[in-house]
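Supplementary notes for students who missed Thursday's class. We covered one full example, reproduced here. Read the sequence, then the structure, then the short commentary at the end.
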Amino acid sequence: MKALNGRKPTLNRPKRIALTVGSIVILSIMVLSQRTHEPSYQGKPLSKWIRGLEYENLNPSEEARAALRAMGKPAINRLISMLERKDSTLKQKFIAYARRKPEIYNRVIARRHLIPEKIYHAQAVTALGEIGPAAQAAIPALIAASKDGFYPVAARAKAALIQIRQESVGPLARSLEDPRSANWNEAVLIIKYLGTTGQPAVPLLVKALQDTNDEVRSCASAALGGIASNPELTVPALIGCIKDKSPDVRREAIDALRKFKNAREQIVPVLLPRLQDTDLNVWLGAAFGLQDLLSNVEKKTVLAPALIQSLKSPNETIRENADLFLQRIDPAAATKAGTK
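Structure (token representation):
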């Protein structure tokens, strides 16, 4: 119904309060429903050990691998339960609503007060693959997940099955010989999620970095970051992509190089000039990469001057982010540079 002035009628204060209270009650019920008992290792629950494993640019640490394997059968059973979990209709509707409201999404979903099922599924399949052969009981659930319509979950599940069954990576690696083949895209995704197990594919992926197709070079860079092995071959090849004409390739190469912390002497000098890149995505990759690779002292002596230069970028969003980074790593330099 329209108001006489042509505007939509607004809710009066009691109705707004009732709607807010109702939303809080519904959210509380959903949050409580997702909390169940879980195993722990060294005082840290399973959910903490696997947090972030759904992201494409984060591999499990050696400490996380050891924790997952040490928790044994209780962890495997819990991960299988997570993999089979389905969101209620109410939860699905709330998540869909939150995606249209950034302030709600950032406050509730981004902070993990409410976790969508696909995040649970991606975390679970990745963790089960890292546990390896001891997770045989998860094979039926992983086979089902390998048919998931959400490709990150399906590809991760296929990678986990290879790890648990201890299958040879050779046939999958050979699928990467021709980037124009029908199954190349699927193979490169699975290889990426195999981590160090995918090492036999490194030479073929390095070769793919010379392909004329931007997407092929981008996918190959991402897969090399997922495998994070053979630094003597991988690092120089990725450094060669830092000046690629495609911003997506440049960003994937930067994210992949962040995995090779032992090669920081080679990587830092090529990342610093990327802070003059006018593409926001590339700039952010370089800024986060340098933040990861540099010591606290180096952040002030090396990164801060580069950020001050970024304050002159023609890209307003880059200038804003340079300001935020600078205030975080060197407040005194930020004040001197005249940032807010």
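Commentary. The CA atoms of residues 175 and 183 lie 7 Å apart. The first strand starts at residue 40 and ends at 41. If anything here is unclear, bring it to office hours.
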